[in-house]
Design brief:
With about 190 residues, the protein is of the alpha/beta class. About 45% of the residues lie in helices and about 20% in strands. The strands form two sheets. Strands 3-2-1-6-7 form a five-stranded parallel beta sheet, with helices on both faces. It has a two-stranded antiparallel ribbon with strand order 4-5. The protein is globular, with a radius of gyration of 18 Å.
């Protein structure tokens, strides 16, 4: 009975995936990171890439980076400077003194933060200069975690992934139905 019940769920999952109604979850990402971290016997160099990082937010990236660092790994967050981030986001996360907040977060967690200038910020998404890829490579990562496969940054990393000497893990931080991104249709076509 349990086997039959599980089998039915697996079939539904397969059916949804094949029909395009598959919704990625956070658990596969955790599994991949657990595998990558545990299979290595030495400290890893993990680079997180995120459109916008707010050091005082209780967000997924804040916790992942902190605890990866506590496990003895070298962790870097590559993110955007705050100049072109919309005012409502900056006000919501109180990022007026982001340099001090970055320093405090880094001292407390051991996580390095690199902020890069943005080309622009469009429809809820950061558009980095092409130098983002070079900055990530310069960190000599063992693995890169791109937060937001539904972003322009995520698409660029997906396209370029075959040319990297490191694996890339991606997740999505936005449900399609909740996104107000006017370029949603492009992400659907791409993926």
């Amino acid at each position: 009975s349990v086997r039959k019940k599980f089998s039915g769920k697996a079939e539904n999952h397969k059916k949804n995936f094949l029909s395009g109604a598959f919704v990625p979850t956070f658990w596969p990402v955790l599994f991949v990171f657990y595998f990558l971290i545990k299979r290595k016997t030495h400290s890893m160099n993990i680079v997180h890439v995120k459109d916008a990082f707010f050091p005082d937010a209780g967000y997924q990236l804040n916790w992942l980076a902190k605890y990866m660092s506590k496990q003895g790994h070298s962790v870097t967050i590559v993110t955007s400077e705050m100049k072109k981030i919309p005012l409502f986001l900056k006000n919501f996360f109180d990022s007026e003194n982001v340099v001090d907040l970055d320093k405090k977060y880094s001292e407390k967690t051991g996580v390095k933060i690199i902020r890069l200038p943005l080309l622009t910020y469009v429809s809820g998404r950061s558009i980095f200069y092409p130098s983002l890829l070079q900055v990530v490579r310069e960190q000599c990562p063992d693995v890169v975690y791109v937060h937001g496969n539904d972003t322009f940054t995520g698409i660029v990393f997906t396209i370029k992934s075959g040319g990297f000497e490191f694996p890339i893990v991606m997740d999505t931080h936005m449900l399609d139905m909740a996104s107000k991104n006017r370029f949603n249709f492009l992400f659907r076509i791409f993926y």
